[in-house]
Amino acid sequence: MDDLKDMEPSPELTRLFVPSGEPSSIILAVQVTLLKCGGICLGTALHHVAVDGTSACHFFQTWSAICRDGDGAAVELPCHDRALLRARCPPSVHPDALSVFCPKMSFTEPSGPTASKVFVISADQLTSLKRLCGSETTFCAVTAHVWQCTCVARRLPPAAEARVSFSANIRRSMRPPLPSRYFGNALVPVFAAGAAGEIASEALESVAGRIRGAINRVDDELVRSAIDYHELFEIDYRLQRGILPETELRMVSWLGMPLYDADFGWGRPWRMSRAESLRGGHVHLMNHGPALDSGIRVLACLEAAQMEEFERLLYAKL
User: For residue 269, is pLDDT > 80?
Assistant: First the structure.
């Protein structure tokens, strides 16, 4: 089991523990691997069109509760009402929506090799970082720090537009709000942007403010405009080859999700992690362990030539 403690996402880890997601129409695939030490590894592959992280966690909590407690399991039933996210008639996209709504990412062929690495930020370091960001949320603080470090490490031209994109949960942004147990993909991709020189040099609190500004823009009108945008324009969401351009950064957050609450009857999970390799320009955030004071893990895939400088910058302010 200790051999898996610090393993990073890789093709080998995926091959060993995660079932194939082919054909692409498969919504859920599960693989159970018995380890020599007596432990169990549960590997899953989920179709993101069908569920987001919140729904996936609800599924695993419900599944594990039924396995653990049988008919006496206390479970909350999911809401499958897709009409709640139906496009308006006629569909209409507000002109301001596209200033923050990010309908599609652009990929490019890598100019050199990429490298992946896992960084651990302790609870104390996280507290210090959030203090620098004006007591912002963990997501805003860490995203601001990672974005700034990336802009510096990449040595982007000062006038180049740098963007950081992420998915916003829309359940509480709509009017009326979606049911808390809405089961599906209730995410809207949004972005914050600025001149690379400004992102690299301004106070971290200001960078966090840009991200907070993008999040605050996610209201009912933006969500409805995003839904209508997909109704009006056909978007090809098939996986593209390549990596994100150096001016782009994509953040994926599993922070605060009850990933360690899935107790099938033999205790809470010892470690939860992504197995598949990240694409260049992507950074994943997740809790380091089940304890509230366990800190977080930052899984980053960047250009190999910039990874050493990124690591130095990441810990310099912590």
Answer: yes
